[in-house]
Amino acid sequence: MARWALISGLRGDLEAYEAIQEDLRHTRRVDTLFVLGDVIGPARNCDALLSRLQQPRRGELQPQCLYGWWEDQLLAERGYRGGRLADALRLSQGETAVDALLQAVDPGHMGWLAELQFGFIELDCALLHGSSATVEDSLGPDSSPLLLLDRLTRMEVNRLFTARSGQQFSIELTGGGIESQVRDLEGQRHQQQSVPKRQVIGIGAGVHYTIYDPGTDRFDFLAAGSRSQERARGFA
To answer: Where would you tag: which of 28, 41, 94, 149 has the fewest CB atoms within 10 A of its CB?
Structure first.
């Protein structure tokens, strides 16, 4: 079965993307590359990276891309989200950041950005920038287990890969059950429903990325150009 590479948070950094592609080509035996948003940002010109994502070089994996928070803000500001503007960016970073984001992306890329999907469902996994609720949802190690369970059950998956926080982490929600008492005209009934094990995985950002093997349910937290890696085991 194919192994996946999951990356995010490049924010126009073509060198980081090239480092990951080099890593994957020579050492990781990966078949599918998922890019979970935030390929653009206001800090640098993003046109070279956007062109590369749309037209990979020979021998590079074809990226499967989603839109992230930064793409959503740009699309809103340029009129691709109905009447909504980049108000979240204005509120958090001011008008200067909005102007910088507009300057960082040539309008010629807007059609491609507007066609990006919110998320992917692969096997029993959801691949999202934020969560099933919203692209700006930043899940992390400190998130409430009830919140994580809600985000998982919204899409009826057992694993949720998320990128918004920029962290690499794994949280396992162990299996259990839900018991309830129901009283109606026929009397009182006891109901029990099993809850399967589920997992939320933060894939990292920039040169920090994640490899996932659906066949063995194992994932690695990696950094492009580094020999060190942290290996983690999922669940069958």
So the answer is: 94
